[in-house]
Amino acid sequence: MTILNPTLACADPLHLARDIDAVAAGGAGMLHVDVMDGHYVPNFCLSLDQAAAIRAYRPELPVDVHLMVTDPFAWLDALAKVRPAMAAFHLDATPFALRMIQKLRDLGIRPGVVLNPSQPVELLAEVLDQVDYVLLMGVEPGFSGQKFFPQTYRRLEQLAALRREKNLRFSIMVDGGIDFENGPHCAALGADILVGGAFVCFGQPDGVTASARRFVQALEGVSEKENAE
Ligand SMILES: O=C(CO)[C@H](O)[C@H](O)COP(=O)(O)O
After folding, report:
1. CA 208/CA 43 separation, integer angstroms
2. Which domains are delineated in the chain?
3. Which of 49, 88, 128, 227 lies at a 20 to 30 A Cα distance from 80?
4. Contact 66 CB / ligand 1 (< 6 Å)
5. Is 50 exceeded by the pLDDT of residue 119?
6. Phi and psi, residue 193, nearest 5°
7. Interval 41-95: pLDDT, tens
8. Which burial class, exposed, middle or buried, applies to 64 when counting CB atoms under 10 A from its CB (0-12, 13-18, 19+)?
């Protein structure tokens, strides 16, 4: 079943704990923590110190970290203190992706790589059997609230087909511009994890918990349909 990982980038920074409780009550699978260095993307977001505080606040909720940073190796010591369940770095941020994947694994963190919308799925050829997940960006990284690129569907289909053909077990996460329409469609095409932000859990008229719950229920509907076929 496809799960919802709400991105805390969209939470109210003055009420982070309240919003964590709200998405947890709405059925969040994990908490998605966006880390930006102001260089790989022209923005800053949550820090790994905040990620550690989030882990301490709700230790039963797994955290996945999305590193939008130029030098992912420089963040390993801080990641080791946070010990998230999963962490992903951008494939184009380092020529040593296999080493970075191994470093994450050595820390007990499930490693993932991220592809931006303009990067072909073929770039993943040498890492697909090494990673636990691939994060496909549905928007250019750096900001929430952007419109989903529809070509993400084709890229997702290609990735899911590669997974089937090669009999691999990595999960597929889609992040950016996910809403109530494209989210279930991504789930039907093979996404295992959807990152929900401005259009799914935060800023909806029915509030954080109710909108997250609606989205989780929409995803359950997809799984049920698929199972019935
Ligand atoms: O990685 C991100 C930005 O780089 C965010 O997780 C993503 O954009 C989610 O926000 P939204 O769903 O509002 O687009």
Report:
1. 24
2. 3-228 (3.20.20.70)
3. 128
4. yes
5. yes
6. -135, 130
7. 999 999 999 999 999 999 999 999 999 999 999 999 999 999 999 999 999 999 9
8. buried
Residue with tokens 């820390």: 107
Decide if 112 contacts 173 (C-beta within 8 A).
yes
Distance, in Å, from the CA atom of 200 to the CA atom of 118, rounded to the nearest integer, reads 24
Backbone angles phi, psi at 140, to 5 degrees: -65, 140
Whether the ipTM is more than 0.90: the answer is yes
Q: Are 139 and 148 in contact (CB under 8 A)?
A: yes
Q: Which two tokens stand for residue 199?
A: 């259009």
The residue type found at 208 is V
Instruction: State the alpha helices, DSSP H only, in the chain.
Output: 16-25, 48-57, 76-82, 97-106, 151-165, 182-189, 208-228
Please choose from 4, 5, 34 the residue to mutate so as to test ligand 1's pocket, defined by most ligand atoms within 8 A of CB: 34
